[in-house]
Give the backbone structure.
Amino acid sequence: MIRVDGRGDSTSLIKVRGLNKTYSRGGEQIQVLQGLNLDVDRGDFVAFMGPSGSGKTTLLNLLGGLDVPSAGSITVDGDEITHMSASKLTQWRARHVGFIFQMYNLIPVLTAFQNVELPLLLTKLSKSDRRKHVETALGVVGLSDRMNHYPRQLSGGQEQRVTIARAIVSDPTFLLCDEPTGDLDRKSADEIMALIDELVGKYNKTILMVTHDPQVAARAHTTLHLNKGVLVEAKALQEGVLAGGAA
Amino acid sequence: MKYSRLIFANLFRKKIRLVLTVGSFAIALFLFTFLAVVRGAFSRNTELAGADRLVVINRVGLINTMPLAYGDRIRQIKGVKYVTHNNWFGGVYQDEKNFFPQFVIDPANQLKVMTELHVPDDQWKNFLADRQGAVVGRNLAKRFKWKVGDRIPLQNALYGSTKTWEFNLDGIYTNDKEGGDESQFWLQWDYFYENIPDVIKGQAGWWVLKLDSPDDAVRVGKAIDDGFANSSYETKTETESAFQAGFAKQLGNIQLLITAIGSVVFFTLLLVTGNTMAISIRERTSELAVLKAIGYSDRFVLFFVLAESLVIALIGGLLGLGLAFLAIPVVGANLNGMLPPLLLSATALGLGVLLAVFVGVASGLLPGIGAMRLRVVDALRRV
């Protein structure tokens, strides 16, 4: 169950309370997030939408432990991450977060197999165990036959599949997708979204995704809009707009 | 090591740049090692000089001679064990390019003073009995493919009109000390004496003395110089190592020059490699950010950068040292005795490896720290 009113129960996988993020730019303070609340349960698939500069990616970075909030707290699976040291946060990310970026961000000099293996090099898994995990992840994304290809030998859709395989290979607690289809044509975007659907439906993955594309957002269980630094459910936003229009 | 694939894959990302960087590293390290070897060659005679030997020269300069009779007075000073005198001959063998030092020696005392030099007994006996005899160092014989029994003509214009002096090669000397000189040509005093003009007879170029004990060096030196003070031929007596150092200094401050060039090479190398690493890291900002995002720590990132620069340095360094190992003997052989033997010692090789490691780490440090401090959020925003 996804909630944005700060009244989620203690079983929520991700619990965000009173999240603030302020940037200082040219001496001016810009408040991007203002007392944001969010509760996400295991297996939820939530899409964040909003205009450019509304703070979608900032929220994703904070949830992924890539940035620190100005105030508020983020608790994931019982771990309060907002007060972790940088090195602890790095270890936490390795265990709990899978990242899927718009631009894929694969290492061009490594093959698909080697790219997917990267997160596992940080674990104590043996070489053969690593191989099994990588082969499984590449099998899930349908690229078993491309594991020795370099990124330049793959299409955009295939590169994004490799990124997804890299994100799921260590079986993280949740996945963060920043515009996962933003650089793809419609057909490839549909294929990637079908794969993400499968990760949620078949493998019960928890996914938080930023997108500009309403068709892509429609696949999520819930779409949340970032409006003036807080999250608003799409339905509520629509009602607000209509009410405003009627007035 | 499980990370080696990532390190080497990144290294070979830009092959031309890698080849150029490794190549410049190899050339620079070769040059640095070569300069170190040349520097060592200049100082070797000083290092190998006998601690119990003194050299007496004319206070005005080495090319000025002194009365031969000084030898008897020097011999009488307490603490002097043996005395031998030498003169510069200055002949030319076939071509002026074939330079090698030629000394007129005092056969009776030469080997008593220069105890590290050895001539087989039979050859020495032949030399003593042969007015036109000559003894040469092993390296010199090798250089001109001379063997005992050969007839060696030397042209000389220093003593009267230009004429050819004929010598019989009676012996070949060797030096006990590793890297010690084996490139001299010795000729008999008597043969020299009877063929020079009368006006310059009775003069010696310099004396070399062997002392009873190195502890006597200061006292004996002072006694000699005081004894000939205020004469027409004042003397300057110094230890053999000081004499060798002074001789090397006549060519200019070679040591300083070589050290200066070596330092420039070293800093250029540091800048070239550092710049390459900085460019390489800047190109990979987003990749490093992704590595950090998926759980690689700042220290890991620093380790990757340092490992890359270290591998470049070691490959380049080993190539440069290999080149030095192959080239220095060839260069040394073609110097025609202009320099003492060029020896690439294990110490020089070890120093080269240490230098390579140091430059590798130092050049990777700044880009590595930059990569370490990289904020993932900022780096990903730049993509």
Observations:
- The beta strands of chain A are 14-25, 28-40, 45-49, 71-76, 79-80, 97-100, 174-178, 206-210, 222-227, 230-233.
- Chain A has eight helices and ten strands.
- Chain A has a mean pLDDT of 90.
